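Thread title: Can someone regenerate the structure for this chain?

I was given the following input by a collaborator and told the matching structure tokens would be attached. They weren't. Posting the sequence so someone can regenerate them.
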Amino acid sequence: MHAGLFLVCFALSAPLALAQLPGIEEPTDPTPAIQTPPPQASDAEIATRITDIFAEIDSLRRVTVKVNHGVVTLTGDVSSTAADTRAEELALRVNGVVTVENQIERRLAVDDSTGSLFGDSSSRLEKVYRALPLYGVSLAVFLVIALLGHLIASWRGFWRLLLPNPFLVELVSGAFRIVALLVALVMAMNILGATTMLGTILGGAGVIGLAIGFSVRDTLENYISSIMLSVRQPFRANEHVVIDGNEGKVIRLTSRSTILMTLDGNHLRIPNTIVFKAVILNYTRNPERRFEFDLGVDAADDPVAAMQLGLDRLKAMPFVLNDPEPEAFIQTVGDSNIVLRFMGWVNQTKTNFFKGRGLAISATKDALESAGFTLPEPIYRLRFDSKVEDALKSVPADSAPPAAATPPKKPVDTREASDVAADTTINEKVAAERAQGGEQDLLDEQSPVE
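Best answer:
Regenerated them for you:
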């Protein structure tokens, strides 16, 4: 593909290259004014001089010249607009010409329009043949530089020494390969003398690249975010995180998105643009995690004694850490109750956080109730009509049927429910996902974490 692009540039630059070869330069018009023999030429002499000049130029031989008081009128026909313009410019440069009335018409014959394209084939072939050594040198320079750039870009060990991040290794080595191709093209075009065409090509490529950049702005932003995340390494695989309100364990970081496994076992892809800008909560970095819950006691009870009783019960639970110690304080005082808040710490690597919190709530509640503390129930005030109230008062107090005896509760084996060991199901699923491979993972255990 690169060789084809280079040959196309060669073909387009052939006229410019051939124009600089010795012995095949095309004649150019002299810059000084064309003088007639006498300093003050008559109309006839001006007409003769212009006619003689046009007679020596193939494309202007059919142009007729008339001169009256220095005003030159050009008629006839030419094969191209360029020949029309050239005739007028030549006439204006003759001494004694005041102005030029250009009435030349362009011929629309097929042979005139295509003659310059297909005519004089032998001369063109001869020029190409004489330029073959120059083409060979230019092609050799292009191939040497391009091959050298490709070899350096493919030298993975060298790039890994410079850039420890594997994603940056791929990015920088690919960019180096493109730069080497551009340098090779510039050097080859300079040898051919086609620098003007090269500038036009590169300018057009820049404009196209700018337009493409605007159209894929979101994609580029996401790609740059992937680069920054691969450098920062804000989390590791299998860490428990919350990203922009999405909770789960990290499977991998790809060039487009961060893949999580939610706590209910589903895959979640978050674009890296969102991840880079989001607030990230990481539960795994610190294995100790605090739980908290609220319990209410009656307004007539001693809240301090209830707090101490709850703290003693929490400290007695084997999975609750003693350092940091559990804490308790009065959260609010309501109309009919006092709300106490209890807090304790667990080690997430050994204890299931949610099970531990639930058992701590149950144990503290039982301890307070066993000590005679009343856990307030909702109080409702009912208002009745006078007739309903009178009817209720007329009912004898002993008319209600006796309450049925409550059957004794059967003992239940609670060992499984009381097991607070850490759940490793999601960890195992994440490990299995990573073992299957798939997309390239930008998370590197060897790179420093943010």
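Residues 121-153 form the longest helix (33 residues).
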